[in-house]
């Protein structure tokens, strides 16, 4: 079963560096940045874990809980976290799933045929407080993720929910947004009293 946008994120119970979590309960009223990486004690993963820890305040500001995963044990994770903190000058506080048996990696299709059968690729799932999958992204083992983009898509998703808008290519917070085609001009007048620009009937922009 693929984990697709719009579906309920599969639930699971698993041991982590912060104790056992029941995923759907653990989500609470938060958003989740759930991300896998191939293995502990590897260089790219060390930088990604460090970056996630460094961005703790940015995630918290957006009501997002990070949750890491790799197919190693809690003991290995805890030893490696010391290296992450030392080399990336941070204090990693978020939980990392210990998925030694690859149960969750299989459930979320993080093991890709043609890659190492014992290691997860770099999957990202952004999950909302309704437990719905809102974004998926997959990077190969040898390319670290762009954390500016991860924060940007979270901002875009949260703005889309709050203001009934869509965001154009390369959108950044503060830029103009797009009025989705599902909103009629009449509705748009109510929703966006500040006004909007019609470039084409299907391409309308505004500021929120
Ligand atoms: C890394 O995190 O550095 C890495 C892990 C698996 C394959 C290649 C790189």
Key phrases:
alpha+beta; 5-stranded mixed β-sheet; elongated; Antioxidant, Horf6, Chain A, domain 2; Glutaredoxin; 32% helix; 2 domains; binds benzoic acid; 7 helices; 208 residues
**How would you sum up the global shape?**
elongated
Q: The CATH topology of the largest domain, please?
A: Glutaredoxin
- The percent range for helix content is 25-40%
Provide mean pLDDT, rounded: 97
Quickly name the level 1 CATH class of the largest domain. Alpha Beta
How does the major sheet shape up? 5 strands, mixed
N→C terminal distance: 38 Å
Uncertain regions spanning at least 5 consecutive residues:
none
* CATH-defined superfamily of the largest domain: Glutaredoxin
Q: Which architecture name of the largest domain does CATH use? A: 3-Layer(aba) Sandwich
The tally of beta strands, per DSSP, is 10
Q: From the alpha carbons, calculate the radius of gyration and give it in angstroms.
A: 19 Å
Bound molecules: benzoic acid
> Which structural class matches the secondary elements?
alpha+beta
Spatial strand arrangement across the major sheet:
5-4-3-6-7
List SSEs in N-to-C order. Answer: EEHEHHEHEHEEHEHEE
Give the secondary structure arrangement, pairings included.
Layout: E1 13-16, E2 19-22, H1 23-27, E3 31-36, H2 43-54, H3 56-61, E4 64-70, H4 74-88, E5 96-98, H5 103-107, E6 122-127, E7 133-139, H6 147-163, E8 177-179, H7 185-191, E9 197-200, E10 203-206
Parallel strand pairs: 3-4, 4-5
Antiparallel strand pairs: 1-2, 3-6, 6-7, 8-10, 9-10
Helix pairs in contact: 2-4
This protein binds benzoic acid.
Benzoic acid binds near residues 38 and 39.
């Amino acid at each position: 079963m693929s984990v697709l946008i719009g579906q309920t994120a599969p639930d699971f119970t698993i041991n982590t560096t912060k104790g056992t979590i029941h995923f759907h309960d653990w989500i609470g009223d938060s958003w989740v940045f759930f991300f896998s990486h191939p293995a502990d004690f590897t260089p790219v993963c060390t930088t990604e874990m460090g970056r996630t820890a460094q961005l703790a305040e940015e995630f918290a500001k957006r009501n997002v809980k990070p949750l890491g995963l790799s197919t190693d044990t809690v003991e290995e994770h805890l030893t490696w976290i010391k290296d992450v903190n030392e080399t990336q000058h941070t204090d990693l506080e978020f939980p990392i799933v210990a998925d030694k048996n690859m149960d969750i990696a299989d459930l979320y299709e993080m093991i890709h045929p043609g890659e190492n059968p014992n290691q997860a690729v770099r999957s990202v799932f952004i999950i909302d407080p309704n437990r719905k999958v809102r974004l998926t992204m997959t990077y190969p083992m040898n390319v670290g993720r762009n954390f500016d983009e991860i924060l940007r898509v979270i901002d875009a998703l949260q703005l889309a929910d709050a203001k009934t808008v869509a965001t154009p290519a390369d959108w950044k917070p503060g830029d103009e947004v797009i009025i989705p085609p599902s909103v009629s001009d009449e509705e748009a007048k109510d929703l966006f009293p500040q006004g909007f620009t019609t470039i084409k009937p299907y391409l309308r922009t505004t500021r929120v």
